[in-house]
Design brief:
The protein is of the alpha+beta class. The chain has ten helices and eight strands. The chain has a six-stranded antiparallel beta sheet. A two-stranded antiparallel ribbon has the order 3-6.
């Protein structure tokens, strides 16, 4: 990242790691807007933000299925928690099917929080972690818990048939659950995770399939569908416009 764009990430505590992928901060310290492209990565983001142009606000961002052009206003502070899908039912307690490729603004006092939460990122992480710990469910459907464990460990390289056999849950029921809760099929979601799993080797200049793609043509086609550009263009990441690539270590 540049001196003008600051990024920081904190991994979740083990107690909440089944529901939370990470906490992250993104700040545009400059006096100019920053044009970026957000790539589909399978996450659900709860974002707390404010800038010179926009007052404090909270948005819930659903699963992205296409690349999205985003303008980060000057002097923006953005703190967020990225959720895994299990959090939808057990933490957020609402379907996000209607937010596929979309977002909604939440009440500014969501979880009794206000603009002061943006004063310090480490404090943000601690406060949100405490709130999430209190929201942890007493009981979880272990089929769903195992389903997501398998999906994330494989980075999407698993078929619905394999999952069905491993967790003892009918394939049709799994797809129905995905469509109802998240707005897309399991196959589509696994495709997004597989695409995200290729970020690391594309950034290293390995512009050939290392994941479960049938061949080079299939790999290029899937990357173009989800990134809007070829693997080569993604690797170049001109002007740091693909922000997820710019933040990869």
């Amino acid at each position: 990242m540049t001196d003008e764009i600051e990024y920081k990430l904190i991994e979740p505590e083990k107690e909440i790691s089944g529901f939370v992928e990470s906490f992250w901060m993104l700040c545009n310290h400059s006096d100019e807007a920053k044009e970026t492209v957000i790539l589909p990565d399978g996450r659900i983001d709860l974002i707390f933000s404010q800038s010179l142009q926009e007052p404090f606000h909270i948005i819930l961002l659903g699963i992205e299925t296409m690349p999205e052009q985003v303008i980060i206003p000057p002097k923006t502070i953005m703190f967020a928690v990225s959720f895994k899908l299990l959090a939808v039912e057990y933490i957020l307690q609402e379907s996000i099917a209607g937010l596929l490729g979309n977002a909604k603004k939440l009440n500014d006092n969501f979880w009794d929080l206000n603009a002061q939460i943006l004063n310090d990122f480490d404090s943000f992480h601690k406060i949100i972690s405490q709130k999430l710990t209190h929201l942890l469910p007493q009981d979880i459907d272990h089929r769903k818990e195992k389903l997501f464990t398998e999906i994330y460990l494989s980075e999407g390289e698993v078929s619905i048939k394999e999952l069905s056999e491993k967790i003892g849950w009918n394939s049709r029921q799994i797809n129905r659950y995905f469509t109802k809760e998240f707005g897309l099929s399991l196959k589509s979601y696994c495709g997004i995770l597989r695409f995200r799993g290729s970020f690391g080797h594309i950034k290293q200049g390995k512009l050939f399939p290392e994941k479960n793609f049938s061949d080079q043509a299939h790999f290029i086609k899937e990357v173009k569908k989800l990134a809007g550009v070829s693997p080569k263009e993604l690797f170049k990441n001109q002007n740091d416009r693909f922000i997820q690539f710019s933040t990869l270590s």
